[in-house]
Amino acid sequence: MANMCPYGCFTHAVVRSIPETFGKAVGEGRENGETTVDLAKAQRQFGCLTGALRQKVGMQLIEIPPDPELPESWRIEDVAVIQGDTALITRPFKQQRRSEVEAVRRVMSELSLTVVEMGGEQGDSGGATLEGSDVLFTGREFFVGISSHTNRRGAEVLADTFRDFAVSTVPVCGGARLRNVCSMGGPDTIIMSSSDGAKKTLRMMEQLTDHHYEVLPVPEESASNCIYIKGPSKRDFLLHRPAEECPESVSAFQKLQDYTLLPTACSEASKLGASLSSLCLLINRKHTYF
Amino acid sequence: MTTESGTDSEAKQPQENQEKRKAKAAAEPKSPQNQPEQLPAAAGHSTPARKGQQEEDQESHRSSTSRLSKSPLRGVKKVKIMQCKITLLDGSDFTVNVEKRAKGHVLFDKVCEHLNLLEKDYFGITHRDIENQKNWLDPSKELKKQIRTGPWNFSFNVKFYPPDPMQLIEDITRYYLCLQLRDDIVSGRLPCSFATHTLLGSYTVQSELGDYDPEEMSSEYVSELRFAPNQTKELEEKVVELHKTYKGMTPAEAELHFLENAKKLSMYGVDLHHAKLVGNLYESLAPSEGEDSEGVEIMLGVCSSGLLIYRDRLRINRFAWPKILKISYKRNNFYIKIRPGEFEQFESTIGFKLPNHRAAKRLWKVCVEHHTFFRLVSPEAPPKKFLSLGSKFRYSGRTQAQTRRASAQIGRPAPLFERTSSKRYNMSRSLDGAPIMENHETPAKDGTADGAAKVIAKGDIITTVTTEKKAEEQGEQEDFKKDATETTEPATPLRLDTKDTEPPPDVVKHQTNVSELKRSFLETGGGGTPGLTEWEKRLSSSPLRSPRGDEAPMIEPLEPQDTEDELPVGNETKDEVGPKGTVAAGYLVKYVAGSIITDGATSSGPHGISLSTTMDDDVFVDGTLRDGVEDKTPDSHEEVLVVKVSPGAVRQEVSQAISDKKGTLIIFREAEDKTDDEDNETAVPEELETGEKDAETFKEDSSVDLKSQAAAVKILSSKVEIKTGDETQIKGIDSPKKAMVSWISEEETVTEVTGVKEVDEINTSNGLQQEAEIFTFEEVQSSQLKSNLTQITVSEPSAAVSTLGWVSPSQKAPADQEEKEAVVRETETAAAKQTNLNSVEVAANDTPVVHTETKTITYEAAEVDRNGDADPGVLLSAQTITSETTSTTTTTHITKTVKGGISETRIEKRIVITGDTDIDHDEALAQAIKEAKEQHPDMSVTKVVVHKETEITPEEGED
User: Fold this and answer.
1) Which first-to-last residue range defines the signal peptide (chain A) (predicted)?
2) Which one of B266, B284, B343, B478 makes the best mutation probe of the A interface by having the most chain A beta carbons within 10 Å?
3) Backbone phi and psi for residue B294, each to the nearest 5 degrees, phi listed first
4) How far is residue B536's CA from residue B551's CA, in Å, rounded to a whole number?
5) Distance from CA of B676 to the nearest CA of A (A)
6) Which DSSP letter does residue B68 get?
7) pLDDT in tens, chain A (290 residues)
């Protein structure tokens, strides 16, 4: 379609810094006592990520300042789904996260993207919830993982927003999020965890798609979340978890021909169930038709 | 089945309509039939009851006036003319008169002619029924049967959206496709984003208005065009912005850009149907918590790649055609049987509830048509009515592969056509669109094709088919190949259905001596199973039998009742299938050959594989099988046509192949023993009478030996003639084309069998002729060594193959040095067979001739030998072995070809049984066949031709 171009061409990245309350208010179901996160380390890792995006890959970086009132606001991926020149502002599952969207919405508007609201303005959301970490866009179609945080109504809104594309729903097993078990590793490549749950999800994706993707399996689930970007220089970059965090999977990335691999640590965020892609929104402003 | 079979449904529809009409009778004096003509209309009102009657026997009475009493008198002479109004894609109306009895294609052709459209297979005509649902007009069915109410108003639409519009040959075709898509978009059927509306709109503007001209075009100039269901000022501004950048772009280019973008839309070419889930959904649905999937509203989308299942706008499942084993409907329900997955052991059936029976049938038809058009090389033959319980509806048009091939021949200069403005899209037209919601309108075809029509269609198809294979290959992607390889045989589907099958019963029905022979042949071959060895093989490989086969796409358009019911149906079909199966194989092979050739030209690697793959679709196979079995005569005609035609097509291809050096692999399977037999029967007697050749029987061909083949059917005759011509040419020349000819010649030889001498001459004269002889042999032997060859072999198990094979080998020999012969094995087998045959007293079986009527079968061993010898000369890989007993002469011809990594082994056995009337030739033949099968368990019998000649016997002192 007009919006259909190979996955991976991005010019801008939007991130939101780690607040002091990082890991504090995670609250709810999680055992707070169990996870102890190192704020300073998390901020260092965040800095490494943004540095890689800006300096190595060559992206324009937009950093939204942290808000102590929003301890999870650094998981910016959840609050918007962007394709082409359209940004869908989502409705996160947790009530306390829903105000995270405001700052993001502003940025989207400033980038002159067409902003579509999921909740509120366009009428009642009907209980729709959707988080970006349950959405995999392949360049050709969307997969939405129906998870604890994303429901079918949310997926419907997404389908209504991005009408050019097929939007398929897939089950996500084990309470995980879709993006926890897979990510794009190239225009036609999906990096997939080889856990049983992920395999089930993958099988469903294979059944639902009209296209053919290469699948790069990785033994560790944490390794399956990467960030692939075809930078301004037309080189292929892959940000992935370093060998310390997923020793068995690094060799798999070596199979990617002519890639520039950028090991990027994410251990602290991952303690909270997040991963590399959770930390940024990728945008292609040089959008071309064809 | 009790009530719901397709046939029933068809019957029902009229009834329903009748009732409705009766109710409305007063209000609507103009029943469809009468409408145009005043008199009939009047009659209509006066007696509603009559209407009912009329409808019931529409066929017989329609042509005549509505008054039954007068029908006999007027019936013949009076031709009712109906005025049809067709809404074209540009919104204009086209009015044309057609005879009331005319078939759908008459109207369609007139419209296409009016539109100057050659690539018309992607299009169709729709008619809204009383429920305001769009139904596709069946080109092979009479119009009056399809239009039961209301005025004869139609619309012209795209029926099959080409996945790659770039491959359309003519700009005018793309233009009409664009018009359809614009309407799809504006109406909301084809949803797209704002950006896409903008982009497509800008191309539309460029196409219609040309370059942006600030002087002539006011700021409002785009407002008169419609681009989207909800067109905003912002959208128009963006359209203008883009339009300005297109300077110099021609309308055709703009349309190409339009299509290149539109085709990527996820709902492009998806025909949606409302339905509800029946039973628990599939694990894949990922239902929300606590949600019961039962009764959930969904949409079924039929498209080129398969069946899509949507819930609201979300795709919740997808079944590619290869995944679907069978589609069926019963009452309001539509079922798909799914091939078991990698980790599943059994196929599963998923049911959907449609709003009503008609909707279910409409969906089923659309599925059958899409599957056939996009997945098959050629349409499958419709089942014969009396044996099949389900609807006999089949897609009778050309497949995409065929139409691509055919349109490649379009040589006319690009036609000039005027692009009308799209002003027609006025606000009133725009709908908001939930495209999904619009599904109700999905069109479906009605009706089955008539036998005659079918035949014709087939003929066309066949001709085209060969050519089209290329297209298919090109278009058809690797998936196809994969499937093919895996599936290997189209036959699989049949088998699935037929697992238990017993072809024999069907055969019995036919009751001809020949049929008996066949039956015995089949029975023996199967070792209890009716199927041939090859069949068995296929079965084993088939998905049904072995869960493993994932890819082979098979769809059987049967109308099963319940699962339980289906079983019985399946059996019935099975029986039919058995015999047909062979036939089908024949078709397949031919196609394959064509494809192969083309492939060679084009080419990708595994030509051999591709052959089998192409044939994969089950549906196709089933159809063919059925045909063969059910109706002897009709089938025979069809088959004959096919065969003959294919040769013609093959010829060209072969020639090409030869030139390309790829032609070697051309193989024909002809499992059509029955057909041949039948043909032979009809033809043979005539031939005998004539004395030498059957030429007489064949109207046109007469002089040529080939004519004997013509015996198959008059219809064929025209084709036959051509063939004969080719044959003669071939004889003179040893080109690959000759192979085709040889095929023909084979048939001739059969007929000629009576006149042994003639045959000999032929043999000597042409290598091709040898092939023909080989054919006969092949038929007898039925089974072949293909097991060794694996894929290729499988495809060509039958004798029919042998002929082609022979030809091809000959060609190959020159062209392909690569070919190798595994003569040794074959020879051994042949020897064994021969011995067996001898014991039986079977002198020699000539493929071509099978006549139960005549008691004496005459064959010249010498001839056979000669043939064999000649063949080897021509074909590097061919061997002929002859053994003689007192009463029996057996000639075995084994050809092995290796090309492109695929090897094919073909065994043709000719058994000549010489003896007094006392000898039971049928039994002897049956024995011979049985033995042949036993000898070559790995192979299947593709063709058996029996020729009996009583009179000639004395002359034939050869043995």
Assistant:
1) none
2) B266
3) -60, 130
4) 19
5) 43
6) T
7) 445 678 889 999 999 999 988 877 555 444 445 568 888 999 999 999 999 999 999 999 999 999 888 888 999 999 999 998 899 999 999 888 888 999 999 999 999 899 998 876 545 567 889 999 999 999 999 999 998 889 999 999 999 999 999 999 998 886 678 999 999 999 999 999 998 889 989 988 998 998 999 999 999 888 999 999 997 778 899 999 999 998 999 889 988 888 999 999 999 999 888 999 999 999 998 765 44
Distance from CA of A179 to the nearest CA of B (A): 17
Q: Is B305 in Cβ contact with A146 (below 8 Å)?
A: no
Please check whether residue B405 is in contact with residue B468, taking contact to mean a CB–CB distance below 8 angstroms: yes
Give the three-class secondary structure for A47: helix
B751's tokens: 């007929």
Question: Inter-chain contact A1–B194, Cβ cutoff 8 Å?
Answer: no
Q: Is B304 helix (H, G, I), strand (E, B) or coil?
A: coil
Q: CA nearest B136: which of B99, B104, B179?
A: B104
Q: A211: how many CB neighbours lie within 10 A of its CB?
A: 11
Using the Cα atoms of residue B448, residue B451, residue B452 and residue B455 in order, give the sign of their dihedral.
positive
The DSSP bridge partners found for residue B320 are: B306
Distance of CA A157 to the CA centre of its chain: 18
**A1 touches B: beta carbon within 8 Å:** yes
CA pair distance B847, B849, nearest whole angstrom: 6
A5: contact with B, CB 8 A cutoff: no
Asked if A56 has any chain B CB less than 8 Å from its own CB, the reply is no
Query: Which chain A residues have a beta carbon less than 8 Å from that of B192?
Result: 1-2, 163-164
Partner B contacted by A136 (CB < 8 A): no
**What residue ranges do the domains of chain A occupy?**
10-17+37-281
Please give the CATH topology (third level) of the domain spanning A10-17+37-281. Answer: L-arginine/glycine Amidinotransferase; Chain A (3.75.10)
Q: What gap in Å lies between CA B80 and CA B534, rounded to an integer? A: 52
Rounded CA separation A186/B771 (Å)? 55
Nearest CA in chain B to A139: B264
Task: For residue A210, give the nearest of B200, B283, B305 by CB distance.
Answer: B305
Minimal C-alpha gap between B342 and chain A (Å): 10
Q: Which of A4, A84, A114 sits opposite B264 (nearest CB)?
A: A4
B324 and B337 in contact (C-beta within 8 Å)?
Answer: yes
Higher pLDDT, B803 or B474: B474
Ranges A190-199, B276-285, B837-846: which has the least confidence: B837-846
Q: Which of B715, B746, B653 is nearest to B459 (CA)?
A: B715
Rounded-to-integer distance, Cα B170 and Cα B946, Å: 48
Q: Inspect the interface and report whether the beta carbons of A168 and B314 lie closer than 8 Å.
A: yes
Query: Number of helices and strands (H, E) in chain B?
Result: 34, 16
Q: Are B447 and B140 in contact (CB under 8 A)?
A: yes
Mean pLDDT across the stretch B341-345? 74
Q: Which two tokens stand for residue A224?
A: 């399956």
Helix runs in B291-421, H state only:
357-375, 400-407
Q: Give all strands of the β-sheet with A214-218 in edge-to-edge order.
A: A182-186, A189-193, A214-218
All residues of chain A having their beta carbon less than 8 Å from the beta carbon of residue B341 are 203
With contacts defined as CB-CB under 8 Å, which chain B residues touch A290? Answer: 261
pLDDT bin (cut points 50, 70, 90) of residue B369 is: very high
Q: What is the pLDDT of residues B691-731, one digit of tens each?
A: 333 333 333 333 333 333 333 333 333 333 333 333 333 33
State the DSSP H helix or E strand holding residue B278, giving kind and residue range, or none if neither.
strand B271-278
Do residues B178 and B110 lie in contact, with contact meaning Cβ atoms separated by under 8 Å?
no
Nearest-CA residue of chain A relative to B201? A2
The whole-angstrom separation of Cα B657 and Cα B648 is: 14
- Contact residues on chain A for B193, CB-CB shorter than 8 A: 1-3, 84, 86, 162-164
